[in-house]
Design goal:
The complex is a heterodimer.
Chain A (H helix, E strand, L loop, with lengths): L4 H15 L3 E5 L15 H5 L4 E3 L4 H14 L2 E5 L10 H8 L2 H4 L9 E6 L14 H5 L5 E3 L4 H13 L4 E6 L39 E4 L4 E5 L2 H13 L3 E5 L2 E3 L3 H11 L2 E8 L4 H13 L8 E5 L9 H4 L3 H13 L1
Parallel strand pairs in A: 1-2, 1-3, 3-4, 4-6, 5-6, 8-9, 8-11, 11-12
Antiparallel strand pairs in A: 5-10, 7-9
Chain B lengths: L1 E2 L5 H6 L4 H9 L33 H13 L6 E6 L6 H12 L4 E7 L2 E2 L2 E2 L13 H5 L3 E5 L3 H16 L5 E6 L20 H4 L5 H11 L5 H25 L22 H9 L3
Parallel strand pairs in B: 1-2, 2-3, 3-7, 6-7
Antiparallel strand pairs in B: 4-5
Helix pairs in contact in B: 2-9, 3-4
Classes of the chains: A alpha/beta, B alpha/beta.
The structure holds thiamine diphosphate and magnesium ion.
């Protein structure tokens, strides 16, 4: 069936609510209304108010309650309306969800899945556009998953719900209704034209920690996740460079083997993310590449990222890494 | 100092903030006083006693308490007022602010705009329906008042009482302003998806401006002619301000210099900003 990313995520939740009575779905506006981005549309009607419900506006409360339920044995899927609003719950995620199994020596665990739309390109300004993945990747005990297509979104969300570890599931909201290559002045593209919009209606899962080679190539490796997978691909095509594009799909666990194999083959690497550059996830990727592929490198690794400023509303398209900047970085990478 | 939510643009207008400036912020144009850094309607105007708004709900409620304590520390008579939405009282920031306000007897007025909705959820989700928001004050040991928020004179008098109390060193007051959100939550919201179409028309407590007008007419302090007159003057002011802002440029047509993107992160720019400006060709 053809699905956009919202429908694919909705289908994943629907399948899991049907399959496992221990799965619950809740968050702000997710029940009766079906979520501000419609990801939980009709789930309450179909599965009942005990399975899918609205919560008070309290991110700390949502996550704390979810952890308590998960410790008991349920599988809560918690929505934070925007990733920007996850911070009131950061203590719960870092000090509790991520540490519960370790500090209790396996007595308890917190298999929560925290879904949150993230990323820019939607004219959302500072508090509806940020990409906070690095602040989760740094926390040992949390996994961070970021899909880039409807097919992956469903399979990865199901795998996340089934995983016994706490998961931050960041949904690239700019990709909800169509792939976005970063050409903000061109007409919107729907998902329906893309192979990755063919999504099985039934259960399937995609293992966490397996990157996907989105495009094979020999001259350089490009690492990206979420919205930037599409921007990077457009930039590669613009540049004419025969680059290999790897969609990481999850940054923890990280498929370091696929990265290593590709970079050893190409000898050059460009990392692209929306989040600002300094101490962004690109820093970890770059360090790993230096440690593991140093003698294979023909050029220093380049990080293309958001500028080191808060997400600036009026300057969205100056901030947002564009295909042009990807192409420019690739050319520089080949010249170095 | 006033610590508003996005619902209190009226405070800015009441304090004489220039309309054109306000619209320039909404357009994020070249004359935007916030230089394109903030979402439309999330104003900041220190000179008008209007604290910087943010997209995160609730996070400034405690700032009102801190500001008030700073004024007390300086032996000033100034007080602070902070507002929060009914839905947002579920956030920790609401309870933290009340705890600090009550423990330190801060000269602050803490207001809740109970408009009965928080996007798609009704107040029964923000608090148990067997209580009121005002009564939460009791457990913190401060007065809690509940007022018809659409009665301008009642609102005025409770605020006057609370301000007096704060100025005389008796500490904080929590006030619940009972009202109703008759429109959509925002421009991207459609309330028909979660409440009856005619709900707004059934709200019994009326429009606060219309009610004040009727009251003044009944007391012969106002007339339909004067009302028409002021309506015309205001309409003209708004239209002219809008035109002036449009001349500078609407959203996307005009924006501040892109260098502004890097200003204000730190007081002084570090090497990163300098290098990134260069990378942008600036
Ligand atoms: C920390 C945080 N969580 C969630 C949101 C998303 N959000 C924006 S407004 C809103 C509803 C607020 O309701 P209420 O406090 O009643 O204020 P009202 O809009 O009714 O004035 C929500 C959930 C947010 N902006 N910030
Ligand atoms: Mg409200």
């Amino acid at each position: 069936m053809i699905m956009n990313m919202v429908q694919a995520l909705n289908s994943a939740l629907d399948v899991m609510l049907g399959k496992n009575s221990e799965v619950l779905v809740f968050g702000e506006d997710v029940g009766y209304f079906g979520g501000v981005f419609r990801v939980t549309d009709k789930l309450q009607k179909k599965h009942g108010r005990h399975r899918c419900f609205d919560t008070p506006i309290s991110e700390g409360g949502i996550i704390a309650t979810g952890i308590g339920m998960a410790a008991e044995g349920l599988r809560p899927v918690l929505e934070i309306q925007f990733a920007d609003y996850i911070l009131p719950a950061y203590d719960q995620l870092v000090s509790e969800a991520a540490r519960l199994r370790y500090r209790s020596n396996g007595d308890f665990q917190a298999p929560i899945t925290v879904r949150a739309p993230y990323g820019g390109g939607i004219f959302g300004g500072q508090t509806h556009s940020q990409s906070p993945e690095a602040i989760f990747a740094h926390v040992t005990g949390l996994k961070t998953v970021i899909p880039s297509s409807p097919y992956d979104a469903k399979g990865l969300l199901i795998a996340s719900i089934e995983c016994d570890d706490p998961i931050i599931f960041l949904e690239p909201k700019r990709l909800y209704n169509g792939p976005f290559e970063g050409y903000h002045d061109r007409p919107l593209k729907p998902w329906s034209g893309e192979t990755e919009s063919h999504v099985p209606e039934d259960y399937y899962s995609i293992p966490l920690g397996k990157a996907k080679v989105k495009k094979a190539g020999s001259e350089a490796t490009v690492l990206a996740y979420g919205t930037m997978v599409h921007v990077a691909l457009a930039g590669i095509l613009e540049s004419g460079v025969d680059a290999e594009l790897i969609d990481l799909r999850s940054i923890v666990p990280l498929d370091v083997i696929t990265i290593e194999e590709s970079v050893k083959k190409t000898g050059r690497c460009l990392i692209v993310h929306e989040a600002s550059k300094f101490s962004g996830f690109g820093a970890e990727l770059s360090a790993l590449i230096t440690e593991r592929c140093f003698y294979y490198l023909s050029a220093p690794t380049i990080r293309l990222a958001g500028w080191d400023v808060p997400y600036p509303h009026a300057f969205e398209w100056d901030y947002f890494p564009s295909p042009d900047r990807v192409a420019k970085s690739l050319k520089q990478l080949l010249e170095d | 100092m006033c610590f508003p939510t996005y619902r209190q643009v009226g405070w800015l207008l009441a304090r004489g903030y220039p309309l054109v400036k306000l619209i320039n912020q909404i357009f994020n144009n070249n004359d935007d006083p916030l230089k394109g850094k903030q979402l439309p309607v999330l104003y900041s105007a220190r000179d008008f006693g209007f604290y910087s708004l943010s997209g995160n709900v609730g996070t400034r409620f405690g700032h009102a308490v801190g500001w008030a304590m700073a004024k007390a520390y300086r032996n000033s008579d100034d007080i602070a007022i902070g507002f929060i939405g009914d839905g947002t009282t579920a956030e920790g920031s609401f309870h933290e602010a009340l705890t600090f306000a009550s423990v330190y007897k801060a000269p602050v007025i803490l207001g809740i705009t109970n408009n009965q909705w928080a996007i798609s959820t009704f107040t029964g989700l923000a608090t148990n329906q067997d209580t009121t928001f005002a009564s939460k004050a009791l457990s913190y040991g401060i007065p809690g008042l509940r007022v018809d928020g659409n009665d301008a004179l009642a609102v005025y008098s409770v605020l006057e009482w609370a301000a007096d109390r704060a100025r005389h060193g008796h500490g904080a007051t929590l006030i619940e302003f009972f009202t109703y959100r008759s429109g959509a939550h925002s421009t991207s919201d459609d309330p028909e998806r979660y409440r009856p179409k005619d709900e707004a028309s059934l709200w019994p407590l009326g429009d606060p401006i219309e009610r004040l007008k009727q009251h003044l007419l009944a007391n012969s302090e106002w007339s339909e002619e004067r009302d028409d007159e002021i309506q015309k003057v205001l309409d003209k002011q708004v239209t002219e301000s809008l035109k002036e802002a449009e001349r500078i440029g609407v959203l996307g047509e005009s924006k501040p210099d892109v260098r502004e993107m890097f200003e204000g992160v730190f007081k002084e720019q570090d090497w990163r900003v300098k290098e990134q400006l260069k990378e942008l060709g600036l």
